[in-house]
Amino acid sequence: MLEILSSIVLLIIGILLIVFIVKLLIVLLPAIVIAIVVYFITGSFAYSAIAFLVVALISLIKKL
What is the pLDDT of residues 27-59, one digit of tens each? Predict the structure, then answer.
């Protein structure tokens, strides 16, 4: 009985984790796209990282 209960709890935790990761990717998708575009235009990881952080921050603030 304990094995079944622990399996169900672990299954629920796994599903919640997957849902959280998918929601996070959806929220950060614009930032990822902008970072990729900036990298292709400039060829600089630093500029693309800055663009990602700025757009991600704006997206998270807008979400709140």
Answer: 889 999 999 999 999 999 999 999 999 999 998
Is 49 part of a structural domain of the chain? yes
- Asked if the structure places residue 13 within a domain, the reply is no
Distance CA 20, CA 24 (A): 6
Which residues 6+ apart lie within 8 Å of 32 measured at CB? 52
User: Into how many domains does the chain fold?
Assistant: 1
User: What residues make up the domain containing 46?
Assistant: 24-64
Residue 35 lies in a domain: yes
Q: What is the pLDDT of residue 60?
A: 84
| 34 CB-contact burial (10 Å; exposed 0-12 / middle 13-18 / buried 19+) | middle
